[in-house]
Design brief:
alpha+beta; Glutaredoxin; 4-stranded mixed sheet; 9% strand; globular; Thioredoxin-like_sf; Rv2466c-like
Length: 200
């Protein structure tokens, strides 16, 4: 059975849809799936951003620290649960992630309330950079969120424009697992517009 890793930044709406697909299809097929941290803020460091993009990078920085702290305290499994709680608030409910919302998300996952303060702790930036670098090393190139790796062979994406029904998701997962067995396969892409449609 293949092991599948999905590297993502919690602020990325496309990654939310991809993660929902992959976790659902993984459960349906018994395929082990691990969600891992990467950082769009680190990827875009030094680039000029403004408006909505700048706010997204600021949120990426703050949440990156929070997730790095949670993983540092509880281990890699802490990422998926916290991502589910925070991702739903961001991408499904459209919340602003107030301090209260962050504390609620931590409580839902049995994580210490003091971790909410880590969003302002620049001392965690190195841990975020290391997590991000692991995603780029897995791919062997620079790319944004998400990155999928099947038994260590990574690809940028997949990018989905809407959550899939389980049967469709299983077919897509089987296709991804198949292409990962072909060393010569490099890329497949078509134009898309965003953000994705996110179902409640």
């Amino acid at each position: 059975m293949a092991d599948v890793d999905l590297y993502l930044d919690p602020v990325c709406p496309f990654s939310w849809v991809t993660a929902r697909w992959l976790l659902d299809a993984g459960r349906a097929t018994g395929t082990p799936v691990t969600l891992r941290q990467m950082s769009l803020a680190v990827l875009n460091a030094g680039q000029e951003t403004e408006g909505k993009q700048q706010r997204m990078m600021e949120r990426s920085t703050r949440l990156g620290r929070l997730f790095a702290a949670a993983v540092g305290e509880r281990g890699p499994d802490a990422f998926a649960g916290l991502y589910d709680s925070i991702g739903r608030r961001i991408h499904v409910d459209g919340e602003d992630l107030t301090a209260t919302a962050i504390r609620e998300a931590l409580a839902e996952n049995g994580l210490a309330q003091r971790l909410a303060e880590t969003q302002d702790d620049a001392g965690l930036d190195e841990a975020v950079k290391r997590a991000h670098q692991a995603s780029q090393d897995a791919l062997g190139d620079e790319a944004g969120s998400p990155i999928i790796a099947v038994d260590g062979r990574a690809f940028s994406g997949p990018v989905l424009t809407r959550t899939l029904k389980t049967a469709d998701g299983v077919r897509l997962l089987q296709a991804v697992l198949t292409i990962a067995t072909v060393p010569e396969f490099a890329a497949l892409q078509r134009p898309y517009e965003g953000p994705p449609t996110i179902d409640a």
